[in-house]
Specification:
By secondary structure, the protein is mainly α. The protein has 12 helices and no strands. The protein starts with 15 loop residues before the first helix and ends with a helix.
Length: 237
């Protein structure tokens, strides 16, 4: 319930809500699900975006710029546009209520901007370093992973943080593509504290606070790389 006027500091501070969330609900299973799904999505998004972004930045082919813009256009579409097609696709493949369904759907969300961010950073790298590696006998794939990738570490960190944060917080796809509590992610688990006639706001806020801790820790740990990667990747290209 809400009070009017609002109380800015509780009269009787308590940690009972955290105890309820941690020990009287299955939130740890949901946290593990979120970690597995967000981690897998981030790893796949980085691998695919590295190759796609480097290809857009370094190789010339017909329709390159148009295709690059179309990738960014995909980021502008609301998630609801692809919700029903993805559900029908996953239902036909019997992937509903599985990790792959959420990982693939999250890739649809994060991959376009991940590709665009890394493309912008690769465009700012000096070609002379890569040409020197090619002269020394390094393959084009070797140039990407041995030369361009180490130089692009700030952009990779920023891109990874973006992919992880979006996957960690996503709610619509997680609610639609999961049918049992064993595959619930944290955002879906939080809704279990809200019923038809009553909402346990203390538990909702406690669970939300706990859910934000991993993202805050990761962001503070890589803050310098995150800001640098975003700024340089946005200016170039």
């Amino acid at each position: 319930t809400f009070t009017s006027p609002p109380v800015w500091w509780p009269n009787h501070p308590t940690l009972a809500a955290y105890h309820k969330v941690l020990f009287e609900s299955d939130i740890m299973r949901s946290a593990a699900n979120s970690l597995i799904i967000a981690g897998s999505t981030t790893a796949l998004a980085l691998f695919l975006a590295l190759n796609a972004g480097y290809g857009f930045a370094r190789f010339r082919f017909f329709g390159r710029d148009v295709l690059a813009l179309s990738v960014l256009f995909g980021q502008m579409l609301p998630n609801a546009v692809v919700l029903i097609p993805l559900y029908l696709y996953f239902d036909r493949l019997r992937l509903i209520d599985t990790y792959p369904a959420l990982i693939i759907s999250y890739l649809v969300i994060v991959l376009p901007l991940c590709t665009w961010m890394l493309r912008g950073y690769f465009l700012g790298l000096p070609r002379e370093i890569e040409e020197a590696a090619l002269i020394d006998g390094c393959s084009q794939l070797g140039v990407l992973f041995r030369v361009a990738l180490p130089l692009s570490l700030p952009a990779v960190v920023a891109t990874g943080l973006f992919a992880f944060t979006v996957s960690w917080d996503e709610f619509l796809f997680a609610l639609t593509f999961t049918q049992s509590q064993k595959t619930w992610t944290l955002p879906v688990r939080i809704t279990s504290f809200s019923g038809e006639y009553f909402t346990d706001w203390s538990a909702v806020m406690a669970a939300s606070a706990l859910m934000s801790i991993p993202v805050i820790v990761i962001f503070l740990s890589f803050q310098r790389h995150f800001v640098r990667g975003l700024s340089e990747g946005a200016v170039k290209g």
